[in-house]
Design brief:
With 366 residues, this protein is an alpha+beta fold. Helix content is 58%, strand content 15%. The two termini are 38 Å apart.
Length: 366
Amino acid sequence: MKLQKRLLLYFVFIAIFSVILTGFLVILFAPLIISVNVDVKDTGSNITSIVTEETYHNPLATQINQVVIMAGTIAGLVAIFLGWSVSRYISRPIVQIASATKRIAEGHYEQVVEVKQHDEIGELALHFNAMAMTIARTEQTRQQLIADVSHELKTPLTSIQGIIEGFQDNVIQDTPENYTLIYQELDRLQRLVKDLQDLSITASGVIQLQREWWQPTDIVNTVVAKIRLQYETKSIDLIVNTKVKLPKCYVDRGRIEQVLINLLGNSLQYTNRGGQVRVNLSHEDKTICFAIHDTGIGLRESDIKNIFQRFYRVDKSRSRLTGGSGIGLTIVRNIVKAHNGHIWAESAGLNQGTSIYFHLPTVEPA
């Protein structure tokens, strides 16, 4: 039952109970307090006259007032007790929420409120617990983000520092190969900084999209042409299956190409030599469906749940080797979401390949 109705019923109950209790007390105490003398006189004309005479020390009006005051006082005290009990019952979870809020403000994000009611206050407690869990996860993610970014920056910087110190100590020769190593590490740093910038922009929810009507097949073919040589170098088949006639979608072409490059780059990275990657395009109910299937290392169930989280890596050793930042899929998710789309991953298990799906609407947003 809603809190508003419950409060109304509580107040009505207390009022009715007070009236009934007052009446009961009046009936109970009136005979004990009010005393009257009754005289019967015979007038001689067959008419009996009953004369009621008040006692000398307790006038009738005074006695009635005493009864009403006593009954009202008792009923009032009972009503106050009932009101206090109801208010305490209602305010207890609010006090708990206020206390937990103060604890969260002090940095203790594990606070939860026990939920026993199924009304608006119970809903408030549930929402508060959900908010507290979200804040706790956000804080944990923030700390993990700082640690991961520090590590990502430290690795190439340490490598560059080591090479330069080797030059200074004449331990390492200043050969073109060593300068190439420095350039590669600097390029890795530059890519990481760019990824972090993209992550900041896309995660803020205010990403600026330059949307136009584009044929999805053209977007896919452009990306495949850019990346096909890398697939051929690794001897991985890249197959594109698209319907000839697909409706145009209202998207930022550059951002969608960025999505496809990230996804195809991941498939290339996690698919062994001689494997296969397929790109499928289809149309369903005002939606363009992109699907990328690979025969790579696959995903565990825990990987599927976390694959779009920042700095999450399925194979940490392989990611470190290739210099991936671990935030590419997070950027992908944010871009798709900014287009009012949806993205998810599927896999039958380890060494069973992975499928990434994302859908984009073919209608202009309202």
